[in-house]
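Q: Joint fold for the lines below.
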Amino acid sequence: MTPPDRLVAAPDAPVISTAGVDGMLIRFADTLSEAANRAALAFRAAIDLAGWDGVEETSSSLVSVYLRFDPIHLDHLTLLHQVTTLLGSRDWYAAELPEGRRLWRIPAVFGTDLAPQLSEAAAQAGLSVDEAIASLTSTRLRVQTIGFAPGQPYLGTLPDAWDIPRQSQLTAKVPEGAIAVAIRQLVLFSVSTPTGWQHVGQTAMRLFQPDAREPFLLRAGDEVQFVTTTPERLDALHRDPKGGAQITVIG
Amino acid sequence: MSGGLKVLKVGPGVTLQDRGRLGWLDAGLSRGGAADLLALSEGAALLNQSDDLPALEMAGMGGEFEADADMRIALTGAPMRATLEGVKLAWNASHILPAGARLSIGGPEVGSYGYLHVGGGFTGRLRLGARSVHLAAGIGAAVQAGDHLATLSDRGGPIGMTLDVEDRFTGGTVRIVESLQTHQFSKAERDRFIASTFHRDARGNRMGARLVLPGDGFGTKGARTILSEVIVPGDIQITGDGTPFVLLCECQTTGGYPRIGTVLPCDLPIVAQAPAKAPLRFHYVGLEDAIQAERKAATTRQSLVKTIKPLIRDPHSIPDLLSYQLISGVTSGADKSDEE
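A: Joint structure:
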């Protein structure tokens, strides 16, 4: 078999690679785009629906789909053929967003000592603090993928001004529910963790609750709009695992 | 009959572990589970029970335990100093732990993770399809002194048995396959990678093992970060300063650092068990060879139970077990072979 990153390489087409001994990755692009993100979400759903024998797990990232399979009972070439056939069955870049999507209106405090890097990030984006807050709350964002930590969404896409790099020095710790910005995306943190993203806002969301009936709040394809609140009101919202979010079904 | 184990003292890294939680990758949750899955299967073979049952994983230090009722136990993984009422217990073996007797497990002689199994398995708490504690995700917590660990009822089986294990506790050479960004590294860099002897850094945990470089950091031809995509245990990512990290069972599910290779699942226990400063080398194998190796490892795992044999014990170093009432259904391996 050819090297993993060159298994199939036609121009303007998805690229299929092996990932470890028991995985395959289908990349729809090498940079983030709306169409490639939709393609990844739709293609992963189609694989799950196909229910192929030997495929044990699937996941999607920003623009790629991963399959984990049992290589002892399903050989790579058979799976490659199945994947290629499914890829050719339609134009995945024109796929609709998943059904059952929801809009989450999430209360958040921007700046203050709860989110100490707002002014620094705003300056890098060439905005005043008020303009930055207006920009972050007026943009309806999409959950492009869930990953890194349990239930943790990557939200995009912010206006061009927010194309700011990750910090070279990590922030030692941001709390659960933190909103952090870099490269025209926001991450809403599901666990307390070190990060290179800048901490600009704080919510009371508990995105992953292992003991709850629904352990994960957000799903890829959901939309998010932040609504400003005060530190006092946010404090009270910590009693609600959804952090005071209002939820509407949109599609 | 079911009882439990009282925890009198315990090291900081003792957690209940099973084969992990598969199927939650899309929700951002990595599989977790035992750092050394082979040790889980070896313990199950010694007790002749399913390797789906959870055991206590002891990272770097065990603890002191006392059983409510007589129970069968097995000790596997990194060999640790273990005593029952002050008398040394053989590692990679099954024993009886009589009610009220004190089991002490110290630090590893070699390796990193030791395992304490009980007949019937620990009860634990089923969450998202598994009983394993996932520290990075906040599922459950490490065992604390004063805890009482409930066990499921034991249908009985052998004790006083042992088995030969693969030495995987001192580092060594690990097989890898090419990974998602292997070819973003020049041939010279890949050649240097496989020619290098690394040492495991002391700063490791269940998420990953940092490797100490013999020379300069490794660099790719392109950017240092790529668009974030899936990470699986065994991936060797090269971080911004060129340092390799081997990702382990509790790793993050996505990442943007390039991966130079992926460790074969059957060789991953060598990395997980390598103690601080142990040497590690990497060797690329083709996909077909990797699948053959996995097939062989799966067969070995399934037939472990056939390899158990009676422990030859020094009569001067066995506790006076006759003074304890043994649970019904328990037979010592030595007795069994006498009958045969």
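Q: Anything notable?
A: Residues 322-340 of chain B have pLDDT under 50 and may be disordered. Residues 87 and 320 of chain B are 10 Å apart (CA to CA).
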